[in-house]
Write a structure and sequence with these properties.
Layout: E1 13-16, E2 34-35, H1 44-58, E3 61-66, H2 71-84, E4 89-94, H3 98-112, H4 118-129, E5 133-138, H5 151-156, E6 163-169, E7 173-177, E8 193-198, H6 205-214, E9 219-221, H7 228-232, E10 237-243, H8 247-255, E11 259-261, E12 268-270
Parallel strand pairs: 1-2, 1-3, 3-4, 8-9
Antiparallel strand pairs: 5-6, 5-10, 6-7, 8-10, 11-12
């Protein structure tokens, strides 16, 4: 593939926190993903053994999960990393809705088969998140707390038959859909494909109005992630995510960002914070690396 050479070594493992965040591969080159189950589904000893095997087999593991993931599940991820004393496991919370996380995870799976190192892949997640247009159509915004909602919209959400189109990323927007279906949001200014996951809501607004207005290259119906109900505050929804589908474009985008070297662990990265040890690019002398990786840190592009 032009501009996106396939790696010859074992690709970095990409992990997620549930099987429904693993979308079908785009081609036979796209690797699968590892699933880190919730604590109730796997004893700690088994989680430790499997993760150790993953690190030994793949070298590095990049784990993505929605920021809405239950606290006990997040604690399990950090406990496994701490007990293994491994600096080769990156834990990356994302503010994207669950379907957006699934789309981003597949993009990293695509890129993991190319010529990028694990540090670049981990920090590319923040870059690529800016290019995912993720949202949903909801029957109510009364319990939506992850996207700004006006009091007026809250009041209208109690009207029977109301539907709202909500864009969570890259810029929050909210529309109340009227009898004519409503005007769509301003869309991405680049070619995209759209994933659509249907919940318990009867509406064709996403496929009949939004997708044509955004001129997407195609629409793929996928299963709704289980975490979507909690993220959006209702099971009556249709979730969507428009994304860059072309591997050569993804490769060029990631390649355009200047690479740095982490002062703590020595791994190559994009931007100004390491995805594995979470240290800033130039930490003050004698300081300790921070415990978490803040999302949305701007990237510095090469000139």
């Amino acid at each position: 593939m032009a501009g996106a050479e396939r790696g010859t070594s074992v690709p970095t493992a990409i992990a997620v926190t549930s099987a429904d965040l693993v979308l079908p591969p785009t081609d036979h080159h796209t690797p699968g993903a590892v699933v880190f189950p919730e604590p109730a589904a796997q004893p700690l000893a088994a989680a430790l053994a499997e993760t150790q095997t993953l690190v030994e087999q793949y070298g590095h593991v990049v784990a993505l999960y929605p920021a809405s993931t239950p606290a006990d599940h997040v604690r399990r991820l950090h406990t496994v990393r701490a007990l293994l004393e491994s600096d080769r496991i990156a834990l990356l919370p994302l503010d994207l809705p669950p379907l957006g996380v699934a789309v981003l995870a597949r993009q990293l799976r695509q890129l993991s088969a190319c010529d990028f190192g694990p540090g670049v892949l981990a920090t590319a997640a923040r870059l690529l998140a800016h290019y995912v247009h993720a949202g949903a159509v909801l029957n109510s915004v009364a319990r939506l707390d992850r996207v700004p909602v006006t009091l007026k919209a809250h009041a209208k959400s109690w009207v029977p038959g109301s539907q709202f189109a909500v864009l969570a990323n890259p810029e929050p927007r909210l529309l109340r859909l009227g009898s004519q279906g409503g005007d769509p949001f301003p869309g991405p200014d680049f070619a995209t494909r759209m994933a659509v996951a249907r919940g318990q809501l009867a509406t064709d607004w996403v496929t009949g109005t939004l997708a044509p207005a955004w001129r997407v290259q195609g629409v793929d119906e996928v299963p709704r992630p289980a975490a979507s109900t909690a993220w959006w505050g209702t099971a009556k929804l249709v979730e969507f995510a428009a994304y860059l589908p072309d591997l050569s474009v993804l490769h060029q985008l990631v390649s355009s960002v200047r690479r740095e070297t982490c002062a703590w662990c020595g791994i190559e990265l994009l931007g100004d914070r390491c995805g594995f040890c979470a240290a800033p690019l130039a930490p003050p002398p004698g300081s300790e690396p921070p415990a978490a990786l803040p999302p949305g840190t701007p990237m510095r592009h090469a000139s």
